[in-house]
Amino acid sequence: MRDMATGTVTTTAERNTGTAGLRMGQRFFSGGIFWLLVIPAFLFFLVFFVVPTASLFALAFNKSTAGVISLSSVITFDNFVRIFTRSIYYESILRSVGIATVVSLICLFFGYPLAYVIAKTVSPGRNALLMILVLSSMQLDMVIRLYGLMVLLGDNGLINGALIKLGVISGPLPLMYNTFGVVVGLVQITLPFMVLSLIGIIKSIHPSLEEAARSLGASRAKAFWSVVLPLSMPGILAGTLLVFALAISSYVVPALMGGWKVMVLPIHIYQQVAETGRWQFGAAIAVVLFVTSLMAIAVYQRVAMRTTGGRS
After folding, report:
1. DSSP class of residue 154?
2. Calpha distance 153→188 (Å, rounded)
């Protein structure tokens, strides 16, 4: 039979073969065979996430004994009582949440304008250059980047050295081994994740929407606050949640930039597990950190549903 549109000749056998292949593909994707593709990822998730997390939760309810890792059938809440009755631990919870929140807001403040510029840049060359600048900071190892910050912010670093040499200050400013140094280090590490989360969302906002607001008499600033910013809220929420999760769970940054003086939950976990060998109490602190992150995700879901009109 000749196809009138293309002028090609197809036989009945070829048509039957094509139809059979299409039906086989439909049966594959609609039947149980399709789910076989999910099994490798499911097994990986089960072995390397579910099992360790469940073991962590179980270990947290055992009596804290130095050097003992094996699970016990005796359940106790002493580890959690100790966390919430001693100021050094529950203050660390508040400090961890506070630092992560501040880092998220700072990354949003600096990251949104950069993401907006990249998303609105029409020239492919300029867009590629800006993306390279953002991604290049992620290519270096975290420790190397932090040591670079230590050279910059140290008591004898470039900033303090220049200010003292110019006579602006008489002594070095406390830029490291405090909360300020930890916040600067976390912002430097997590800022690219915020930018990358925002670029795609801002690009998806059609320029005609902003132009329509301008044609109705809105100024450029009014059109941005009324149209662009609300439509980019999913990216803002996703980037903020990602930065918050990275900041609250970071150990390397508080250890190097805080000099073991800024006590956050990951520092306590390391001390209990690596230094004192109390795996049970360290697991309890890890559970608190895990639950805190889940609460942040729950808040994110609630805010996201409200900002998207109830659509999750």
Report:
1. S
2. 13
The residue type found at 35 is W
Q: What is the residue whose two structure tokens read 């907006």?
A: 116
Cα separation, 154 vs 145, in Å, equals: 14
Dihedral of the alpha carbons of 203, 312, 309, 303, in degrees to the nearest 10: -90
pLDDT digits (tens, 9 = 90+) for 162-197: 999 998 888 899 999 999 999 999 999 999 999 999
CA–CA dist 283, 276 (Å, integer): 13
- 191 touches 136 (CB < 8 A): no
- Residue 86 CA to residue 263 CA, distance in Å, equals 14
Take residue 11 and report the two structure tokens written for it: 């036989």
Q: What is the 3-state secondary structure (H, E, C) of 21-55?
A: HHHHHHHHHHCHHHHHHHHHHHHHHHHHHHHHHHH
What average pLDDT does the structure give for the chain?
85
Domains assigned to the chain: 77-309 (1.10.3720.10)
Per-residue exposure over 57-75, b if at least 16 CB sit within 10 Å of its own CB, e if not: eebbbbebeeeeeeeeeee
How far, in Å, CA of 70 to CA of 87, rounded? 29
